[in-house]
Every structure is written in structure tokens, then in C-alpha cells.
Amino acid sequence: MKSIGWSLKMVMLAASYPHILQNSPFIAECVALEHNDPAVLPEFRDWNRFTYDIDLSTCDNIPNGLRNATLTIHRKDSKTNIWTMKI
After folding, report:
1. Neighbours of 26 (CB within 10 A)
2. ∠ Cα 49 6 65 (to 5°)
3. What share of the chain is helix, strand, coil (3-state, %, to 5)?
4. In angstroms, rounded to a whole number, what is the distance separating the alpha carbons of residues 81 and 34?
5. Cα separation of 68 and 32, whole Å?
6. Which residues make beta-bridge pairs with 51?
7. Cβ atoms of 52 and 9 closer than 8 Å
8. What is the pTM of this model?
9. pLDDT confidence of 35, banded at 50, 70, 90?
10. I need a labelling partner for 29 at 20 to 30 A (CA). Which of 17, 18, 40, 64 fits?
11. Contact present, 77 and 48 (Cβ < 8 Å)
12. How far is CA 54 from each of CA 25, 47, 76, 86, rounded to the nearest angstrom?
């Protein structure tokens, strides 16, 4: 799970740069841009300010991966939920 967390942090870091996000519809889809506030994205450049919680209860094929797991990203200092998406 730790390596998955690092991978997700790097995806969010990439999405925080407008030129990457605009040139990659795949990244926008991966981070569920249409369901979250894009104004928050630049905050992910300081990637260590957040916790990444993965809810395995929404997975539909757990022996073979985390498909449809729900990821919730919180600010470490305030525990505020700032981003949610399916893996």
C-alpha cells in the first residue's frame, strides 16, 4: 500500500502542473478532475502535506488489484477532505 501511495502522490503532482494536465486527457481522467475542484491542484506540489486513504470496501476485484477502490486525500494539518476519486 505504501508504494501505491507514492504512485498516487506522483500522479497528483503531475496533475498540479497546468501544461501537463491540459496536454494529457488521461491524467485529467485519472484524477477525476470533473468531480473535484481544480483550483486545489497546485497545492499538490507540496505533496507531503496530504494523507492518502484508500477504501478497499469499494473494490470489485480485490485479489487482482484495487479496481474501483475509493481514494480520499486529506490535508494533514486540518484533516480536511480535498479530493476524492476511484482508482
Report:
1. 8
2. 130
3. 55, 20, 25
4. 16
5. 12
6. 74
7. yes
8. 0.86
9. very high
10. 64
11. no
12. 23, 16, 15, 9
